[in-house]
Automatic annotation (TrEMBL), chains A, B:
InterPro entries: Cro/C1-type_HTH, HTH_LacI, LacI/GalR-like_sensor, Lambda_DNA-bd_dom_sf, Peripla_BP_I. GO terms for molecular function: DNA binding. CDD domains: HTH_LacI (cd01392), PBP1_LacI_sugar_binding-like (cd06267). Pfam families: LacI, Peripla_BP_3. It comes from Sphingobacterium tabacisoli. This is LacI family DNA-binding transcriptional regulator.
Length: 345, 345
DNA sequence: TTGTAAGCGTTATCAG
DNA sequence: CTGATAACGCTTACAA
């Protein structure tokens, strides 16, 4: 790959490889004069140190693995962008993997990452129990792991995410405030966060003495295609809207569901927010371009990304035994951004 | 990082390292019996070969660098997802970089990638001339480079993207068909593709004998924040709509501009498509959730990604001298998806 | 069929 | 201040 090696420079300058190495690394043992000569020569000949050799010697790669369920949602893309920024800032590179919300792919990705050699792994696990054993063993033997976003996961390490229950509670509260109390909640099937987000919804209803109806709790299979999701939504909504107690609000617990339901409602000619108000999780940057502008529960992606990375770097650089560290779980605050989809006036 | 090494296995089994290596690599020189013994032992002790050592020896990393302007647009996220799929399928990993549409960051990313060691680079360059020299030298001395998406770039290598002129021509034609001939075109400033997309617009108007008005050609500075983009759009649109010859259609030449303008129009209470029809480049998956459902020029991201990757792998694996290869430029077909934002009934 | 030895390109230790 | 030597963990001629 690179053209000229350290050894060759040494030969050409009649110096030893170790001198060259030290000179290029600005060692105090080398005279300014030699340093200058070596550096100039290296520059001229466009010397690029072979990273593999260096890292082999040093025992680290400066790569960190990032494993996301999908890189295709706006939330993921944002997160990834900020992770990348923080990584570069700290002289680390990101090797990207996606699990497509599927344990098998998650396992494959983890194995690839460890085979490839990364100094640490940042993961949003598929489900609460997915690949727990593998991940534990990686964390114990291979490289540190930090869990983010999907933090309900039984691995003893740093975790960073949001308070899922509280966030949904707040969102439900907004609907209740505008007197929309017959709230349909859209959940992803088998997602680690679903349960907690659902609990927030249930608690809010309970606190405001609103009866919880099973028919209002919808689980959508997430592993299917977007068209399938749309179709399921359409069928369910059509059914519910024709029933005696048609809901007058929708709370989406995931970005995909929240955003896509708007398209389905438009298609069904159901007016938002007049007939049905909508609020839900989403970090979409086009919220204002949606039909109508969408009220969202917004996650602090930048903070989540930079903190997650920092936690991972701390573990990578820590001299302590992994068992000596007391791991923390950080919950970041979400914010509610109200827009037209919940504006009744 | 890994726990047990090849050498240690050798000691424990009273065999030589080379035997172990060959056994694990299924060499024909090794007896089935030994192979079995070695493999079982390796499995039990959870042996992970050190990738760095291996790649140092073999002279390749199995990593390819992907350098995108941004990873935050739906188009980029899709592309990245498909690139990742293809890469994994071919046993390559992706190291991700973004240039934030900025030459300096692009240069930094390229240097990092080469320092890090990648077997090839896939790049969508910032502009037509950005880092041309650096990239040429990388392509010549370091590892093969394939240009994608932003293919108007003077590097002699494989390129894959779309026919920008034709695509905009088609989009403009759709507007003309519905008799919306006073078309405002939104362009990004300093983007490599802008010129060609603009030419398509101009050619369409010319072919249909529609006068081209300079006031209808808008250039938006892309390097600014999203809010700044929105503000610029708002100001310009307000101005144009109050003028004597208010446009009755908008053609967006980039995903960000096309999608965001919908939010701005909604904000200004300008009705789409009644007052102004909108069409433009975008691969957004929520097109139906937009206000209104957006007519788009859709790029075949999956094909672009898998072909780009294939072209790069071909170069990586090619025995030929770089100068012996005749490089090709592949133009993929785009498709127009008509939705409500251009539906006049 | 197995083992020996050299080498990939660096860096670290220690001696000169 | 500079250099010799060993080592990181693996692969691969070549030798046995």
């Amino acid at each position: 790959m690179a053209k000229i090696t350290l050894k060759e420079i040494a030969e050409r300058l009649n110096l030893s490889p170790s001198t060259i190495s030290k000179a290029l690394n600005d060692s105090y043992e080398i005279s300014e004069k030699t340093k200058k000569k070596v550096k100039e020569f290296a520059q001229e000949h466009n010397y690029q140190p072979n990273p593999l050799a260096k890292y082999l010697k040093l025992g680290k790669t400066n790569n960190i693995g990032v494993l996301l369920p999908s890189i295709r949602t706006p939330f993921a893309a944002q997160l990834l962008q900020y992770l990348h920024q923080s990584a570069i800032y700290n002289s680390y590179n990101i090797i990207l993997m996606q699990s497509i919300d599927n344990e098998k792919d998650e396992e494959r990705a983890l194995i690839t990452l460890t085979n490839q050699g990364v100094d640490g792994i940042l993961i949003a696990p598929v489900s609460e129990t997915s690949n727990l054993q593998l991940l534990s063993s990686i964390h114990a033997n291979h490289c540190p792991v930090v869990v983010f976003d999907r933090i309900h996961y039984n691995l003893d390490t740093h975790k960073i995410g949001i308070d899922n229950m509280k966030s949904t509670y707040m969102a439900a509260e907004e609907l209740i405030k505008i007197n929309r109390k017959n709230i349909m909640v859209l959940c992803g099937k088998n997602l680690g966060v679903t349960q907690y987000r659902l609990e927030g919804y249930q608690k809010a209803l309970k606190d405001y003495s609103i009866p919880i109806k099973e028919e209002n709790i919808i689980h959508i299979d997430y592993s299917k295609s977007l068209t399938t999701i749309d179709e399921s939504l359409k069928e369910i909504i059509t059914g519910r809207m024709c029933s005696d107690d048609a809901p007058n609000a929708i709370l989406g617990t995931t970005e995909t569901l929240t955003t896509r339901v708007l398209g389905v409602l438009a298609d069904l000619k159901i007016q938002v927010p007049k007939e049905i108000a909508v609020i839900g999780f989403s970090n979409i940057e086009f919220a204002n371009s949606l039909n109508p502008a969408l009220s969202t529960v917004h996650q602090p992606t930048e903070e989540m990304a930079s903190t997650a990375l920092q936690l991972l770097l701390d573990l990578i650089n820590s001299k302590k035994e992994r068992s000596q560290i007391d791991f923390q779980t950080i919950l970041l605050e979400t914010s509610i951004q109200l827009r037209k989809s919940t504006a009744l006036t």
